[in-house]
Amino acid sequence: MSSTTSVARLTPAARIARGLKYTTVGPVDVTRGALGVGFNSTRSSVGWVANRYRSGRLRAQLRKDLATAQEAIAHELAAAQEVVTNIPQALQDARKGRRRPKALLVVGVGVAVLAVGAVSFSIIRRSTQPDPSPLPPSVDVNPQP
């Protein structure tokens, strides 16, 4: 039977701490820990430099994209300014082409509005009046002397 033991991998900082704790394996662990910390530091620095390089290239691309967008916006603004200057002429042309509504149409709409108003007034008036009771009155209608 073979027994397998799982070996926990130590971080460089943990390795230094363990090296300082144990005197037998101390010098080896301290050396490995110091090398590991140095390697991690170097790797981090290289990553930082690579990110700065990439962001520099990214900034150059962003500058190009921004210049292109500014040119497109300038063209759009010029086109919009041309449209705005032509609005008064377009409105004048539209007014010339439009015909006035006929008097009969205006009268017809007025009569329809009055009819709807009269019907709604009668409906509202009926709904506010109480319904007559189906029961006979509880008080004598003709008072006796």
Q: What percent of residues are in strands? A: under 5%
Q: Which term fits the overall shape?
A: elongated
**Count of helices?**
3
Unreliable parts? none
Largest sheet: none
What is the mean predicted local confidence, pLDDT?
Answer: 79
* Helix share, percent: over 70%
What's the number of extended β-strand segments?
A: 0
Task: Give the C-alpha Rg.
Answer: 47 Å
Structural class: mainly alpha
User: How many angstroms separate the termini?
Assistant: 126 Å
- For this entry, what is the oligomeric state of its chains? single chain
Helix and strand element order:
HHH
Task: Characterize this entry briefly.
74% of the residues lie in helices and 0% in strands. By secondary structure, the protein is mostly helical.
